[in-house]
Description:
Helix content is about 50%, strand content about 15%. With about 350 residues, the protein is α/β, with parallel strands linked by helices. Helix 3 crosses helix 4. It starts with 14 loop residues before the first helix and ends with a strand. The model has no long low-confidence stretch (mean pLDDT about 95).
Amino acid sequence: MQTDTAPALSPPPDPDKLDILLGRMVGDLGAIATGALVVLGDRLGLYRAMKSGEKLSPGELARRTGTRERYVREWLSGQAAAGYVNYDEGSNLFWLTPEQVAVFADEASPAAMAGAFEVVSSLWLDEPKVAEAFRSGEGVAWHDHSKCLFSGTERFFRPGYNANLVAGWLPALDGVVAKLEAGARVADVGCGHGASTIVMAKAFPHARFTGFDYHAPSIARAREAAEEAGVSGNTRFEVAPAKNFTGTYDLVAFFDCLHDMGDPIGAAAHVRERLAPDGTWMIVEPFANDRLADNLNPVGRIYYAASTMICTPASLAQEVGLGLGAQAGETRLRHVVTAGGFTSFRRAAETPFNIVFEARP
């Protein structure tokens, strides 16, 4: 005889632990809501109009930006509550500290973060597509995301490239700087809007740079950026995927893109074919440890969210669909690179946000 068994009831929540969790939720909800205000202020030029650090009234900021005072006052109040701008009650004025300028108002700052909020915007905008991918098991291709992802990705990564690429990452590679100074041939694969390519081209005018990306609108923007930066003479951009770019190179660079590829082993094998006999493959990846437990921290939290919504779906939308994810870790990356035919693989440099690997034939 069959009897129905009632499902086991979970124990009641511990009130103290529940309060702690709810307190975290209040902070997280505030950060999420404030993110929309950051995107808004960035788009309207509100931060840039406060760049001098001068104390401003809502009315004056509205006049400088061609916006309406009532909206600006509410925006400033929310930013002050978040600690993103400062407020003086006596004068009813608002201003940015030099640190806040560096984060929100100065695109050239190594601490610029406004672009990161554009990336986060895409997570919300594209959530229905990713939800469907969860059900179907299929992917969401990079080009199927909202446009703000493409511009936000460039703006998010560019400060790190400006701060580290020429000063630290390239010198950490064996003999590469000397080759660049002498006129090396360089391929920047998965270049997006070309920020990394342009940084290198400006630093090494005798070298020849080619940026490749399968996403035609990104290549069009990269060409414009090269013109604006004055590096068109030694830089060109071409539409090509990672397994089909042409030419022979002394240095091939992959910036924050290997883990997004459906067939990263195939991409590694193609790099091996395109490298000069004494060439170098530089692989820049998001910082990650091999063990999940070691990635349960604020940086890992951001990267796992991006990996769930962007990186893993992008890989699963392609051939093979290995799905490395943004937190692949050194051991898995080593396997990918050596399976592609490389015999030398080492960690050359790192920051809190990136690891730089050097691979040689």
